[in-house]
Design brief:
The protein has 24 helices and 17 strands. The termini are far apart. By secondary structure, the protein is α/β, with parallel strands linked by helices.
């Protein structure tokens, strides 16, 4: 049998195939994705689940003239492979390689850059309205999952689209799971639709969409037939497609959470290749296990996450104390204001949101929490550079976007013990909200489960004394700083301070430092604009200090994908680059 995939360099070649040949192409495409991701790693299950849908969309619609948007983009590997990136796909998520998500600068077929959920309908509607205004006859397709469509922004897009005559097609890829299983009343509604028990009150029809489905998302002929019909339907349309995440790989179908991004695995058997187990615990697990420990001591503690119970390790509390742990779905704004409401009633909400996702709830932090001085405890997982997920996921803006908000405490632990102690301190009762930011990955302390100690708010610590040069670090970048100091030409001359709090700053300690050291270096894994270094410069200016202050951090640019070690080296935050800077300053 002649292989087909290697002949497809763009959707033009795809459209030359006969419909009867497309199931073979689907099988080859699945095998290609499995073989590459097995060795290079990446997001597996989502792309396997939409292979037939991907082929059908490019087969029926005239992409890139017709514009196709993949919500979030975890599921777009097949799309990338069919649109001229097959031979480069092995570079996916690597330094200098393809992005793990659709990206406008990468391909004309990537109509809209994605990475965060629930944006596709609004973007596609905007494109459709623009086409109308320009007199163009284009189709605009948004492919969105059942978890993402529950996000508030998706509903805003549906609400607007329903009162337009825009040429918009929303394809609901319904597999009942995002990264973790979907939650909420909408999920139950969609389940009832699939079972045929939801006979009345079709939500989508009520919003003035032409609704069709549900149809089998793995029956390629059925999908093509329905897409061809919908091409001739005017106005907003909605196609409900049922798929299986991980389709075609037994283990990925059976354990959809683990095989969302499984790491390396055996492409033939599907079995995971065991990694060398780190002797250190992941920060997310330190958070999750500590929260359970504290919640057993304090009955007012509750945990909240927007659709990331596994990624944030709130799963531990959901398993042990399920009535006090809440997965609210992809709804960051709701998560924050829900926490605010709980805080007004005396509960102690730990609101765990990835740093990059908290950006989506900025007004709620200001208006609903900080303005009212409600003691919500924000736990910002994945702060700093996060690695292969790239620019859409790096948590490098939080110190800057949070520091300007009044009434908000900001703390960055340098290790797991500090994380535990600030969580303990926060639940004892604060008069203000607090943001605690910590990185992705493993910590540095084996025996991190120490007895709790209260941390004094606004107090930094001296890690090492010296007499010539002062290094001020914030958070876990202290590890690289310590290593760099140890390997310097004159480590005895260098002092190292962990400031711990970006807000409030330990001004008493800073006065001591500025009076003793002529040269000061600040280090952070946050953008330099408005971050920790800026706070130190503002302190110096306010107090009329003229010391030499050198700020090190993330430059004013979006950082692309790569391992955390590679990215730290690229921006000069690895231990060796820091050592060079320190030696020059001595």
């Amino acid at each position: 049998m002649q292989k087909l995939l290697h002949t497809i360099n763009s959707p033009k070649e795809l459209r030359l195939l006969k419909t009867k040949d497309l199931p073979q192409l689907a099988q080859e495409l699945r095998e290609f994705i499995i073989n590459i991701v097995a060795t290079k790693e990446g997001h597996l299950g989502a792309s396997l689940g939409v292979v037939e849908l991907t082929i059908a969309l490019h087969y029926v619609f005239n992409t890139p003239e017709d514009q196709l948007i993949w919500d979030v983009g975890h599921q777009a590997y097949g799309h990338k492979i069919l649109t001229g990136r097959r031979d480069n796909f092995h570079t996916n998520r690597q330094v200098g390689g393809l992005s793990g998500f659709p990206k406008r600068s990468e391909s004309i077929y990537d109509s809209f850059g994605v990475g965060h959920a629930s944006t596709s309908i609004s973007a596609a509607l905007g494109m459709a309205i623009a086409s109308q205004l320009k007199g163009e006859n284009k189709h605009h397709i948004a492919v969105i999952g059942d978890a993402s469509i529950a996000g508030g922004m998706a509903f805003e897009g549906l609400n607007h689209a329903g009162v337009t005559d825009a040429n918009l097609l929303v394809v609901l890829n319904d597999n009942a799971i995002g990264i973790d299983p979907s939650v909420g009343a909408l999920k139950q509604y969609l389940t009832n639709v699939k079972k045929g028990t939801q006979k009345r009150n079709n939500i989508i029809k009520a919003l003035n969409f032409d609704y069709s489905g549900p149809i089998d998302g793995h029956d390629i002929e059925a999908i093509i037939s329905e897409l061809k019909r919908l091409k001739n339907v005017k106005g907003p349309k909605f196609l409900h497609v049922i798929t299986t995440k991980g389709k075609g790989l037994k283990q990925a179908e059976e354990d959809q959470v683990k095989y969302h991004a499984p790491g390396k695995f055996n492409a033939s058997t599907g079995d995971l290749i065991s990694k060398t187990q780190s002797e250190f615990t992941k920060y997310q697990d330190v958070f999750g296990l500590t929260l359970v420990e504290l919640a057993k001591l304090n009955k007012n503690i509750v945990g909240i996450t927007p659709a990331m119970p596994t990624g944030s390790s709130l799963k531990y509390m959901m398993n042990e104390i399920p009535d006090r742990a809440f997965d609210v779905g992809i709804a960051e704004q709701h998560a924050v204001t829900l926490a605010a409401g709980m805080a007004t009633q005396g509960l102690v909400p730990f609101c765990n949101i990835y740093s990059t996702f908290l950006q989506r709830a900025y007004d709620q932090i200001i208006h609903d929490v900080a303005l009212q001085k409600l003691p919500v405890i924000f736990c910002l997982d994945r702060a700093g550079l996060v690695g292969e997920d790239g620019a859409t996921h790096h948590g490098v803006f939080d110190l800057s976007y949070l520091r300007c908000i009044p009434n908000l405490i900001i703390f960055a632990p340098r290790n797991e013990i500090e994380l535990r102690n600030i969580m303990y301190t926060a639940q004892l009762g604060l008069d203000l909200p607090i943001a605690i930011r910590y990185p992705r990955g493993s910590g540095i302390t084996i025996d991190w489960k120490q007895p709790f100690e209260k941390i004094e708010i606004g107090k930094g610590v001296m890690l090492k004394n010296g007499h010539t040069l002062a290094v001020l670090s914030i958070g876990t970048i202290a590890k690289n700083s310590t290593e760099a100091i140890t390997n310097c030409s004159n480590p005895e001359a260098m002092a190292h301070f962990d400031m711990r709090f970006v807000k409030p700053l330990d001004e008493a300690l800073l006065h001591t430092i500025f009076k003793k050291f002529n040269t000061i270096i600040t280090i952070e894994d946050n953008v330099l604009n408005g971050g920790f270094g800026s706070a130190i410069l503002e302190f110096a200016s306010k107090n009329k200090y003229t010391n030499s202050v050198n700020t090190l951090g993330i430059p004013n640019t979006f950082i692309e994908q790569g391992s955390i070690a590679e990215l730290q080296q690229s921006v000069g935050l690895d231990a060796e680059n820091l050592r060079v800077v320190f030696n020059k300053a001595l």
